[in-house]
Amino acid sequence: MKKYFGELFTGAKSLIEGMIITIKAFFSPVVTVQYPREKNIIPDAYRGHVVMVLNEKTGEHKCIACGTCERACPSNCFKILTEKKEGEKKKTLTAFYLDFTKCSLCGICVESCPVGAIEYSNEYNLAGFTKEEFHYDLLKCLKETSC
Amino acid sequence: MDFIANLPPHFFRIPIALTLVISLVFINALIMVYLERKIAGHMQFRLGPMEVGWHGLLQTAIDAVKLMSKQLIVPDKAHTRLFRIAPLLAFTPAVLPFAVMPFAPNLQAVDINIGVIFIIAMASLNVMAIFVAGWASNNKYALLGAMRSVSQNIAYEIPVLLSLLSAVFVVGSFSLGDIVGYQGKIWLFIVQPLAFLIYFVSSVAETNRAPFDLPEAESELTAGFHTEYSGMAFALFFLGEYTEMFVVSSIATAVFLGGWHGFPLPFFEYSSVVWFLLKTYFLMFLMIWFRWTFPRVRFDQLLNFSWKYLIPFSLVNLLITAVVVKL
After folding, report:
1. How far apart are the CA of A25 and the nearest CA of chain B, in angstroms?
2. What residue spans define the domains of chain B?
3. So what's the ipTM on this one?
């Protein structure tokens, strides 16, 4: 008899507890983000594909065309084209190709750069139909401010 | 004109009432499906339907259009005639109880003196529709769902009847008009709290809703008795379920929660209807709340709960009521 009523009371109590939890959830704020219309804030440490840093003083990139990143990359993602103009001492950058399909976002390129010319981007909206869509020319990206 | 004037009043009253009732049933289903999905969403920190119309208001209307445009597939080895009849059988009895429902003092199609019994009889016809559907589908899941539904409804019909009977004992009439009229002074919910509780729990089981949704337990039986149904046939079962919800909630309102009684609201000339619907929809909100809180019970738990707890308690309650009324 004790067990019979005990079960009834513990059962009823647990049911009421459950209902309190759901009604609290009902009145608490929604966690859904309506994606195309609302977006989450991307944390600073997010690793998107690398982009070139803009030097705010000159309005140009910081790259000195040394090719360290090209050599440091374990996956051979970079291809850097340079030319030496007449009368100038240093080489200048003409194209900075990134093959993002090979990149594993390890970050050795960012670390190895002696002048801090490349950094991670916040770009996460990536989708495409061909591999070639992920072959970027980062120099062009910097000028057009989009990839 | 003499001819029309000589017709009995029910000749006009019943068709008008039925038209209103059927439109009420469809509107109720539209509202309830929307509310169910919205409330379910918010109870799980989601938003629910948001895309079609303002905050997804037109979602259910669009779903209804989609269901209507779908083909009705009859399985090869199904019993074609029974298979076609079953959805109608599920829908029609669910509509009929509204004929005797007292929505307001003057808003009741017919006040028959056995109103409560009529409603219970119509509500229990729904089981037969489910069984016919399960049998005619020639599908093992459908049949298992139907069998579960029948044993569940047999187990839960008894506490429903007994708890309503204790309310009837207090009032001394089966007519819903009389029962509501009696509650002008005090609601039967206060006189018979246990009967109300038993009635409400068992009526959730009667409507085959969670946590008693074993006949359509999707994780075990795909969709139970309506596994083979598509398009509008499925929609009729769905409509029947939501109408059944409305029916059991409005019986609970009429018998236990004072029906259309309530203090007059400002700006509403017909505040009694508003009160009736407010109470009914509050009970339906409770049902939705149950559904999104409680996990589905196991079959032995389901039957144990009815035979070990609900039926003895309602019998004792009935006995005490009878003794008190006699004294």
Report:
1. 5
2. 74-326
3. 0.74
